[in-house]
Structure formats: C-alpha cells, structure tokens
C-alpha cells in the first residue's frame, strides 16, 4: 500500500538533525553520461557543491562521448584527482551497461545515481543520508525534482507525491513516479541490479530496491530533471520503453505481489497507453496491448476495463485539482507524473 508522510515536521526535523550526520565519506556518486556537452559541467558542479564530508567518490561513466563531453570532464576531474574518477569507454556500451560498470566499481555504503544531463540542488544529500541512517528498513530515499527544458528554463515538478513512503505494492499499483537522478540507496541492492541479464529501465531499479525495504521520497525538490532531451530513450523510443515497463511489471509476480496490486498495475499501464492513443490518434496501441492486458490480468475483462477507467478518472481528478496549484510565475504548475 501507499503510505503518505503528511507530517509537516519532516523537513524541520531533517534541518535540525543534519548537523549530527556522521562526517564520514560514505556516498559513491555514479554519473552515466554520453554526449552531454551542454549539461555535464552543471551536473558535476552540482555534485561538488554538496558537503565534502558526505562523498567518498564520484564515478563517471563516459560512454564514448564524441561531442566534447570527455574534454569537459577531464578538465574538472584534473582539479579533483582524489575524488573524481573518469572512466571513458572507447566503445559505446549503452546506458544500462554503462551504469552496471559504475555500480560494479562503487565502494560506498550508499549509492547515488545521476544522469549527465540532470543536476542536483543545494543540500540534497544530507537529508537523504539522515533518513537512511535513521531507519534501517528504508532501502532508498528519493526527492522530488524540478523539471527544466534543454535551455534550463523551469517547467514544473517531476511528481505530486509530496513526502511519501512506497512499498512494492504501491509502486506496482500506481506506476513509476520516482526520479532516478534523485536516488540514494543502500549498497545491498547492487548485487541484484548487476544480476539482471537484460537491460532494465529506472522503474525496475526502483522495484528492486523495494525488495529490501520501503522507499521514501522527500517532497521538496532537490534535483533537476531535463525534459524533451534529444536522443533520450524516453522521448525517442516509446515502444521499447513500453515493452521494458511491461516486463518490469510482469517480473513483480515472482516477487510475490498480490493479484489485486498486479491488476491495478497493469490497468494503470493500460490507462497510460489509452491516453497516449487518444493524444496521438494512434489506436493501434490499444488494439495491440489490450489482449495482452486481458490475458495477464487475474480478473475478467469487465473488471479489468473498470479498473482502467477508475485509474483514468483518478488521474483526471488530480489534474483538475492541480489546476489550482500555481508556480512562482503565477501560472499553473505543470506536473510530469501524477500518483
């Protein structure tokens, strides 16, 4: 189930307690990048702006960049030789294998992942470390993120979940709303991620963490996520992302997710397909996917359709209420993912 942390004292407690965080370098920061010339410097400097006593190492997987990214990294790394480790691959590995390479080298108790076109905001790591130190049943801590365009203009927020806790069932039922570049997790998850023999998307990484405990999100945005980036798999290869998302859901059955949670998860997935079909007027997607949804659902056709409709109505209501929320410019605040 989804447990919302509505207690207003959360950030106040974190602010009061960060001074008590043990000053031991425990975090390995893993940055995967490929041809991020326009963004990588901001990414690296945002990491270097975090408290120096938190970070053990910064591992950069440079996936055969050929646009000047490598040179920018080398210049910054030369000024921090004991901290930044620049691993430039002579041949392109792909995002998944690049990340596995970095995780295989990480030595920290806690691991932070960051894409080379994203960046962190001031004070990100300390409250996350505190939450992991404070509760051994917490497997990973995320934060909300601001969304920005390629030129850096602020768009809105990554999600509307606020301060929250998610268990495995909640992640399956409502789908992915967690920001990968905000993630800080315990090293215990690394072996499970490295054992994956096929590429997986960030949603499945979150699901793997949930095998070890609950996932927390700090509602305050402490990272920045770039939207509509040219070359991003999310924007350029929808069909592959859908297939990988579906496979991630299917594998949760082996993890012991209940029939109810699984049914809610696959109908929420179909809701996303349905809305995309309406937006693009490509109803082929619905014709292709509904037989797979129906065959996989533990419930009958009528109930599966009802759960899909209920998911769509839930999101519609949240969108309507979201119209009342204004950004700093007085305009409606755009939310990328709604819970």
Describe this structure in words.
The structure is a single chain. With 339 residues, this protein is of the alpha/beta class. 42% of the residues lie in helices and 21% in strands. It has helices at residues 10-17, 40-48, 69-79, 95-105, 125-134, 168-174, 190-194, 202-209, 233-236, 238-251, 259-280, 284-296, 301-322, and strands spanning 2-4, 27-33, 55-62, 84-88, 110-115, 119-120, 138-148, 154-159, 164-166, 184-186, 214-226, 334-337. Strands 1, 2, 3, 4, 5, 6, 7, 8, 9, 10, 11 and 12 form a 12-stranded mixed β-sheet that branches. Strand 2 (27-33), helix 2 and strand 3 (55-62) form a beta-alpha-beta unit.
Features:
339 residues; alpha/beta; 12-stranded mixed sheet; 42% helix; 21% strand; disordered N terminus
Helix and strand topology:
Blueprint: E1 2-4, H1 10-17, E2 27-33, H2 40-48, E3 55-62, H3 69-79, E4 84-88, H4 95-105, E5 110-115, E6 119-120, H5 125-134, E7 138-148, E8 154-159, E9 164-166, H6 168-174, E10 184-186, H7 190-194, H8 202-209, E11 214-226, H9 233-236, H10 238-251, H11 259-280, H12 284-296, H13 301-322, E12 334-337
Parallel strand pairs: 2-3, 2-5, 3-4, 7-11, 8-12
Antiparallel strand pairs: 1-9, 5-10, 6-11, 7-8, 7-10, 9-11
Helix pairs in contact: 1-5, 6-11, 11-12, 11-13
Largest sheet: 12 strands, mixed
Average pLDDT, all residues: 90
Helix content: 40-55%
Range of strand content: 15-25%
Q: For the CA atoms, what is the radius of gyration? A: 20 Å
Look at the helices and sheets and give the structural class: alpha/beta
Low-confidence stretches: 1-9
Order of helices and strands: EHEHEHEHEEHEEEHEHHEHHHHHE
Distance between the termini: 13 Å
Number of discrete helical segments? 13
User: How many DSSP-defined strands?
Assistant: 12
Q: Any idea what the shape is?
A: globular
């Amino acid at each position: 189930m989804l447990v919302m942390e509505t207690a207003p004292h959360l950030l106040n407690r974190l602010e009061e307690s960060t001074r008590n965080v043990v000053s031991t370098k425990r975090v390995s920061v893993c940055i995967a990048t490929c041809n991020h010339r326009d963004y990588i410097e901001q990414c690296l400097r945002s990491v270097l702006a975090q408290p120096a006593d938190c970070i053990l190492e910064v591992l950069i997987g440079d996936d055969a960049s050929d646009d000047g990214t490598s040179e920018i990294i080398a210049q910054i790394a030369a000024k921090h030789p004991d901290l930044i480790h620049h691993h430039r691959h002579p041949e392109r590995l792909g995002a998944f294998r690049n990340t596995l390479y970095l995780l295989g080298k990480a030595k920290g108790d806690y691991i932070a992942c960051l894409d080379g076109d994203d960046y962190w905001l001031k004070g990100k790591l300390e409250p996350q470390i505190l939450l992991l130190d404070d509760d051994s049943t917490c497997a990973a801590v995320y934060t909300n993120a601001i969304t920005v365009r390629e030129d850096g203009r602020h768009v809105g927020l990554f999600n509307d979940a606020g301060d929250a806790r998610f268990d495995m069932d909640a992640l399956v039922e409502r789908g992915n709303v967690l920001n990968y570049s905000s993630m800080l997790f315990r090293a215990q998850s690394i072996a499970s991620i490295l054992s994956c023999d096929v590429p997986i998307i960030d949603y499945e990484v979150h699901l793997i963490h949930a095998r070890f405990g609950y996932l927390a999100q700090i509602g305050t945005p402490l990272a920045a996520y770039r939207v509509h980036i040219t070359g991003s798999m999310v924007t350029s290869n929808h069909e592959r992302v859908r297939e990988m998302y579906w496979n991630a859901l299917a594998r949760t059955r082996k993890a012991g997710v209940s029939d109810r949670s699984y049914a809610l998860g696959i109908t929420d997935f179909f809701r996303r397909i349905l809305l995309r079909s309406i937006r693009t007027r490509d109803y082929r997607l619905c014709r292709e996917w509904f037989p797979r949804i129906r065959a996989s659902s533990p419930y009958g056709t009528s109930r599966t359709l009802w759960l899909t409709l209920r998911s769509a109505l839930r999101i519609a209501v949240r969108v309507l209420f979201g119209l009342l929320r204004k950004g700093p410019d007085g305009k409606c605040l755009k939310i990328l993912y709604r819970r």
